[in-house]
Every structure is written in C-alpha cells, then in structure tokens.
Amino acid sequence: MSEGKKLALVTGASRGLGAAIAKTLAKDGYLVALNFASNEAKALELKTEIEKSGGSAVLAKFDVSKSAEVDASLEELSKAHGPIAVLVANAGITIDALLMRMKDEDLDRTLDVDLKGAIYCVRAASRGMMKARSGSVILISSVVGEMGNAGQSAYAAAKAGLIGFAKSVAKELASRNIRCNVVAPGYIATDMTGALTEAQKEAILRGIPLGSFGSPDDVSEAVRFLASPGARYITGQVLGVNGGMYI
Ligand code: NAP
Fold it and tell me: Contact 221/191 with Cβ under 8 angstroms?
C-alpha cells in the first residue's frame, strides 16, 4: 500500500548503492521511485523484493543526463504520488583515463551524468519541495571528489562539483526548509568497484584505516540518517563513509 506515504526518488536504483538506499528508504516507510537508465529487469526485481517485504515502490525510467526527460519524469511522478520528499541523486558512471588520454566524449559523458544529471534532478525536484516547504536532498559524491585520484580526473571533477553545488543549494533553499547534503563514499563493493584488479584492490586497502571495503548498507544508513527528521538541523554538509580513507 502506497497511499499516504511520502515519495522518495533514488536515481540509479537498479543496482549497487542505489538499490541498497532504495530498500532502506522503503523500510522507513517511503514510497520509493526506482530510477534506472536501461536495466529494467534489475529494477523490476528490486521493486518485487521491496513489495514482498511490505514496502512500496514504483519504477521511473529516465536518463538523468537528459534535462527534458528528467523534467517530464519528475512532473509525472509528482502528479501521481505528490511532491518528492526525499531525493537521492545517486546515478553515476566512471570512465577512467589518464588526463593525456582523456577523450572529449568521455569527459562530456562523465560530467553529463555525474554532475549535470544530479543538478537536473535537484532542480526539477525542488519545484515541488518549495511548494511543500519541505524536502531533503542527498547527493552521492565520492571520496575521489575530496582527495583526487590519478586516472579519475573527470570523475573527481564531477564529484567535487557536486559538493560546491550542494553547499549553494543548501544556502539557497534553507528558507524553504529544504536541506541538501552530500554522502561521499569511499570504496564500496559494487559493480563499479568490481572492475578493479586484485592488485588495485590491495593497494586501495592499504590506504583504508578500518581495513576493508565498505558495504552498500554502510552508505544507505548514512542516507537514511540525512533523510530523517533526526537530521533536521543539518544542511550543506559532506558525510564521508570511507573507513577513514579521507579524514
Ligand atoms: P553501479 O553499481 O555502477 O550502478 C550505477 C547505477 O546508476 C545503475 O543503477 C545505473 O542504471 C545508473 N545509471 C547510470 N547512468 C545513468 C543515467 N544516465 N541515468 C540514470 N541512471 C543511470 O554504481 P554504484 O557503485 O552503485 O555507484 C552509485 C553511486 O555511488 C555513483 O554515483 C558512484 O559514483 C558513487 N560512488 C560509488 C562508490 C563505490 O565504491 N561503489 C564509491 C564512491 C561513490 P542501469 O542499471 O540502468 O545502468
């Protein structure tokens, strides 16, 4: 049953961190809109899993990097289910390359999805939040946006950009009771990190004081807190979930 539930939109919810965040918010009683780009089968599987455990979810297929698609999809969602109470801008990609070998199209795609995609979603969701005079926006950045990483300069630029964007939005929308915070995960075991070689994983582990990769639930618990009334006085902050990798 979804009547009376507040709406939470999680972008990139078909897999990885987004799927864990969606499950956690569904447990907290939100109707969760599961966004994805192409992986409809995975998103549908997750919807079924959430519903089997007593939660509510709807699918929301759109490409976050297409501003018109974002606007139309968010308007449709709000018409059907009310204003977005919680937006988690999580969808992201990484196309790694050393600066000298970075291709224009890869740079554009990274910025389009990771930075502009989040901005489009926040802009569209903020319309309903402003009317409702309430909302919580959580952007999923990365430890790489805070400390940099050789071979990931485009990704780092996008993820660092999210932090400046969040701080500005926090200042701009605070008077409407809309909070905007960032969660910056370190290395978390998902498809994205699955592409690392064993040697790369070992090198990364040496730089993590708590001695292991994180789990998607480590991130979803941070998001749960920032979305909750317990975080009502917290805005414009970056919460690192990184095992001490960046302090
Ligand atoms: P993932 O397993 O690769 O999943 C990426 C998700 O984003 C998928 O649901 C994918 O949908 C969606 N997506 C990609 N492009 C999209 C687009 N244009 N429009 C809509 N959805 C799109 O990634 P992850 O590891 O869970 O990472 C999630 C977020 O956390 C990303 O922003 C990433 O940068 C950040 N992060 C991850 C880590 C980590 O260690 N894993 C660390 C720091 C930050 P489809 O399934 O349809 O392709």
Answer: no
Q: Are 108 and 40 in contact (CB under 8 A)?
A: no
Q: Is 113 in the pocket of ligand 1 (CB under 6 A)?
A: yes
* Whole-Å CA distances, 5 to 25, 62, 124: 11, 23, 20
Does the active-site annotation cover 155? yes
Separation of alpha carbons 65 and 69, rounded Å: 8
d(CA 146, CA 68): 30
| Atom of ligand 1 lying closest to residue 114 CA | 32
Tokens of 5: 């539930």
| 38's tokens | 């192409």
Q: Give, for all 247 residues of the chain, the pLDDT tens digit.
A: 577 899 999 999 999 999 999 999 999 999 999 999 999 999 999 999 999 999 999 999 999 999 999 999 999 999 999 999 999 999 999 999 999 999 999 999 999 999 999 999 999 999 999 999 999 999 999 999 999 999 999 999 999 999 999 999 999 999 999 999 999 999 998 887 788 899 988 999 999 999 999 999 999 999 999 999 999 999 999 999 999 999 9
Question: To which residue do tokens 């999923």 refer?
Answer: 140
Q: Whose CA is nearest to atom 39 of ligand 1?
A: 188
